[in-house]
Amino acid sequence: MRYNCCSQTFTISRTADKWYVSFTIKADKIPPLYHSVSETIGIDLGVSTFATLSDGTVYQLPNSLKKAKIKLGKLQYRHRNKQLGNKKLGIKSSKNAQKFYRNQAKKHADIAQRRRDFLQKTTTEISQKYAHIRIEDLNISGMVANHKLASSVVDSGFYEFRRFLTYKSSIYGTIVELVDRWYPSSKTCSRCGHVQPMPLQARVFVCEACGNNCNRDLNAAINLASVSKNRVRMASPELTPDQEKEPTPYADTGNKF
To answer: Has 136 been annotated as catalytic?
Structure first.
């Protein structure tokens, strides 16, 4: 397809050994008028399982992402004792060291691209299927401060998942809401509402009041879907630097791209 459009803002960036040019086009996209699921859906993000929906749908991180991380770890381990140069001490890096840095940058870029591809496809699939989405307002900085969870939280990309869902709400006509981060979704029984302690290592929620036996993540997702409205607020998309101000007007050159 061919469009008559032009862009005034271009951003050139480099990742590993590749150069990228990104640009923005201001265009309106008509959101879909129909979603196969109109009921409110809750999404619980976790470490062992990436995302669990209140209807029982489960999303796992792709194995390719885990394999890419293992390859990066092996590369770094093999070069752990090598002299790779030091600018402060005036030691120049050798050709082998420069080769190692290039390979390491490529593997880091590969991991980031695989993660982004997974998050984009997952959030698009969810936005196209569900009309009303609720996710927990997680304290990402606090979770990263915990050394036991930091690596898993960063690798999973919880913040990016929420950001993608939020900005796609205007594209696919969905409603994305954030549940109060202090709401005890994992400690509350989804059947009777009883609240009880729930250690991190416990993967099954067994209610002490009614005996409800349910998967921990599924129980939390159901609670997020049914939480009262006074503990919910609308998620607002964040503005990128090129969106914070309108581009200056310019004359139409008549060029076609």
So the answer is: yes
Say whether 217 is catalytic: yes
**Contact (Cβ atoms closer than 8 angstroms) between residue 177 and residue 235:** yes
- pLDDT, tens only, 45-88: 988 889 999 999 999 998 888 889 899 999 988 887 777 777 77
Encoding tokens for residue 107? 């593997």
**Choosing from 136, 137, 155, 242, which is the catalytic residue?**
136
In-domain check, residue 158: yes
Q: 231 lies in which domain range? A: 10-83+92-183+227-243
> Is 125 a domain residue?
yes
Find the catalytic residue in 44, 180, 238, 242.
44
What is the helix (H) or strand (E) element at residue 132, kind and residue range?
Answer: strand 130-136
Residue 165 lies in a domain: yes
Is the whole-model pTM more than 0.70? Answer: yes
How many structural domains does the chain have? 1
Find out whether 205 and 44 touch, Cβ atoms under 8 Å.
Answer: no
Taking only the tens place, the pLDDT of each residue in 180-210 is 989 999 999 999 999 999 988 888 999 999 9
Paired strand residues for 53: 43
Active site residue 160: no
- Choose the catalytic residue: 110, 177, 217, 244: 217
